[in-house]
């Protein structure tokens, strides 16, 4: 019989391509990963990875079992979700994920209310960049900005997102309009070309709050989802009277379908849904200052 932990370590190395990244994903020491892979190879008398300068590369033997290992991983995750889905207690842990700006500027005080109402529920919050895998139970509940969630997630769409073009009263008039762009935008974005005859990129950012701060400092103008600047409501940051079509992206509160009967997950989802509905006007751009 093969140990499930052996499969976990095998998949981590296969998917990450090196021991260091695999150890980080598994939250163990890299020497533990090396030792487990070596022991697995010795146990079965087969080499699973070629050690190359850039890391680990799967051998034909590893490629032969890779899909089976993925299927075992999926079944293991399904068992975990099904068992968790039967939990009827209003106590225990809930893992949540959401954009950090929604937590910090839209929901942080609401979470304080939830903890007061449900002191036996332990909330574990992840607000880092990147999506968490709800199928793998990296999170139980997600507040996600998306045009459409995958079929295996259930929940409620709170609102569609409205964008606006914002600038600070500190921004000095110029013949060339400074634009705050996203990190991956190599050229002046289309919205700037449409609305401004002469525009240039003044700075690039990889975070929405960083974009807002750059606008507030007078570095340039930016197209942002209205909920952040309108929630902060700093008097120096104004939305320009330029009409932008409503985005097809929405704000969703989601969980995996297998957790639909987990009482504490349902309780937390209902709470977050209610509180976000009360803030719907911010997401839809009805609270802007021009």
UniProtKB/TrEMBL annotation:
Protein's GO biological process: DNA-templated transcription
Keyword DNA-binding applies: yes
Molecular function GO labels: DNA-binding transcription factor activity; sequence-specific DNA binding
PROSITE patterns xref list: HTH_LYSR
Keywords assigned by UniProt, alphabetized: DNA-binding, Transcription, Transcription regulation
Signal peptide from the UniProt entry: none
Keyword Hydrolase included in the entry's annotation: no
Superkingdom of the organism of origin: Bacteria
The HTH lysR-type domain, residue ranges: 2-59
Family according to the record: Belongs to the LysR transcriptional regulatory family.
Designated name of the protein: DNA-binding transcriptional regulator, LysR family
Lineage: Bacteria, Pseudomonadati, Pseudomonadota, Gammaproteobacteria, Alteromonadales
């Amino acid at each position: 019989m093969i140990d499930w932990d052996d499969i976990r370590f095998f998949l981590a190395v296969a998917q990450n391509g090196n021991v260091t990244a695999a150890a980080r994903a598994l939250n163990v020491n890299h020497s533990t990963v090396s030792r487990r892979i070596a022991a697995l190879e010795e146990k079965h008398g087969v080499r699973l990875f070629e050690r190359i300068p850039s890391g680990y590369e799967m051998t034909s033997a590893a490629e032969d079992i890779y899909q089976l290992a993925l299927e075992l991983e999926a079944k293991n995750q399904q068992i975990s979700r099904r068992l968790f889905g039967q939990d009827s207690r209003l106590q225990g842990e809930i893992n949540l994920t959401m954009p950090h700006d929604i937590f910090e500027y839209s929901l942080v005080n609401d979470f304080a209310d939830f903890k007061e109402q449900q002191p036996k529920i332990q909330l574990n919050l992840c607000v880092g960049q990147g999506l968490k895998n709800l199928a793998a139970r990296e999170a139980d509940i997600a507040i996600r900005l998306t045009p459409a969630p995958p079929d295996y997630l259930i929940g409620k769409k709170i609102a569609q997102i409205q964008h606006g073009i914002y600038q600070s009263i500190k921004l000095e008039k110029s013949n060339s309009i400074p634009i705050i762009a996203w990190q991956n935008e190599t050229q002046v974005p289309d919205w700037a070309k449409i609305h401004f005859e002469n525009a240039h990129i003044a700075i690039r950012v990889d975070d929405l709050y960083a974009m807002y701060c750059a606008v507030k400092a007078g570095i340039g103008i930016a197209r942002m989802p209205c909920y952040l600047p309108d929630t902060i409501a700093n008097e120096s940051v104004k939305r320009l009277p330029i009409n932008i079509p409503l985005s097809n992206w929405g704000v969703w509160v989601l969980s995996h379908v297998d957790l639909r009967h987990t009482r504490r997950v349902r309780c937390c989802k209902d709470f977050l849904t209610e509180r976000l509905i009360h803030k719907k006007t911010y997401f839809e751009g009805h609270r802007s200052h021009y």
